[in-house]
Design brief:
elongated, Rossmann fold, alpha/beta, about 325 residues, about 20% strand
């Protein structure tokens, strides 16, 4: 009788142990799909900030979450293919970096939570019903830069400027949105402007060269195609004595003159905080307003300024 009791206890312990082990093995790993439009410093920093922000909150890739990072290499067709893969994989959350990438995945699912970043105006890109009340499965962070302040910076560095060349990709909604804001600022400041657009990266050199002799300064917003080819833009512009005011710091590091813009790494971390709220069931994209960074950073490329013979004012 005593032996039977001992055997019963041992069997119960074994059963509990098996159950516990089975539960641990069946614990669901959170899957996060990432679609990035193209490789350049701003978008790369955005992604890194997102991953680091998740890790700081206890969500570490390879441990309790699995991140499937995909880069479209600047091709819209690749965006669609990647978006289809991530949706079919039934990821728990999708992080879309840049407007074309966000549009590609948002068009394929109304169920999977999607967070976007490096998107200037999600509302005009038709990703959300409104930036204050998204209303669907998409929310995230905007990389809207202070376009008016960038035009004021332009005049501080190039006070004799009369005409600004607006250089951007014609197919990027975010760039069109920013250029219109910059043009409104130019109107108030008494600056003339001409638009110069590219449809693919092969046109960047020629279009930039065409601006030389027609404008005093070139301005490019946070345009993904121009950012990826900024070294070429800077080379042509600087050789012709044309300063470039940029949408973000990475473009300045590649030879642009200056920017007053946002920190894309911090923008990624801010998006990660939103992701944690969704993963933990504390919030849903539908009720999460689009978020913005409050702080902007001034960045001036002193080597470029010296090459162009530009004196940086003491108040900068």
């Amino acid at each position: 009788m005593k032996m039977k009791k001992i055997l019963s206890v041992l069997l119960m312990v074994a059963a509990v142990s098996i159950c516990f082990t089975g539960c641990k093995k069946s614990a669901k790993t959170i899957k996060i799909g990432v679609i990035q439009l193209v490789e350049h410093s701003a978008l790369d920093a955005n992604y890194k900030g997102f991953v680091d922000g998740l890790a700081e909150a206890g969500y570490v890739d390879g441990k309790n979450i699995k991140i499937d990072y995909q880069n479209a290499q600047g091709e819209q067709a690749n965006c669609v293919t990647i978006a289809d893969k991530l949706v079919n994989d039934r990821d728990d959350l999708i992080f879309a970096i840049a407007t074309p990438a966000a549009q590609a995945v948002a068009n394929l699912t109304q169920d999977i939570p999607i967070l976007v970043s490096s998107v200037t105006d999600p509302e005009s890109a038709k990703l959300v019903a409104s930036n204050k009340e998204p209303g669907g499965n998409v929310s995230g962070t905007s990389d809207l830069t202070p376009c008016a302040a960038q035009m004021e910076l332009l005049l501080k560095l190039v006070p004799n400027a009369k005409t600004v060349g607006m250089l951007y990709c014609s197919s990027e909604q975010n760039s069109f949105f920013q250029v219109k804001l910059a043009e409104e600022a130019c109107d108030k400041l008494g600056l003339k402007y001409v638009e110069a657009t590219v449809s693919n990266s092969n046109e960047i050199q020629q279009v930039t060269q065409n601006l030389c002799g027609k404008v005093d300064v070139i301005y490019s917003p946070t345009d993904n195609m121009i950012a990826a080819g900024m070294a070429l833009v800077a080379q042509v512009a600087n050789e012709n004595g044309i300063p470039t005011i940029c949408g973000e710091e990475g473009m300045v590091n590649q030879g642009g003159l200056a920017t007053y813009g946002i920190n894309y790494y911090e923008l990624g971390k801010q998006t990660a905080k939103m992701a944690v709220e969704i993963l933990e069931g504390k919030n849903k994209p539908a009720t999460m307003p689009i978020q913005y960074l409050d702080k902007c950073d001034l960045k001036i490329n002193e080597d470029t300024a010296k090459k162009l013979g530009i004196t940086i004012p003491d108040n900068l």
